[in-house]
Amino acid sequence: MIQAKYCDRRAFYWLSPKVDNPDQRVATDLASWCTTLGELMQKFCAAPLQVVYYSWLTFSYTGAVGLAIAYGFFVVGTALQRLIVSPIARLVFRQEELEGDFRAAHMRLHRSREEIALYRAGRVEEAALDSRL
User: Fold this and answer.
1) Boundaries of each ABC transmembrane type-1 domain copy (predicted)?
2) Of 11, 48, 123, 28, whose CA–CA distance to 131 is shortest?
3) How far is CA 103 from the centre of its chain?
4) pTM metric for this prediction
């Protein structure tokens, strides 16, 4: 599939010259993809069996009440995690967005350094950077 896309419509010819060693990249990415897919499938297939096994084990040691408590604990824990993690994830996203804006402002300063120096606008740029901080 990857090789078919690479050879389709002469993609290998139109590939940007900035991409170095495309053959190595394809081989490395393919190996990484296969390893990750194998690990994911192993976990995906093993998880239901583990749930059934540990449910049976819990039931055999503690009965139906113990199993109900274990599942109740799981449901409550999952609900609490969603309540706590969702707002934190939004805050982390916002922080990364602001950090990106700050880096972009510094890149703009670096890219326009001659004009800024010519107009002696260092203080204005400092204020702009401070507002991003």
Assistant:
1) 3-132
2) 123
3) 20
4) 0.47
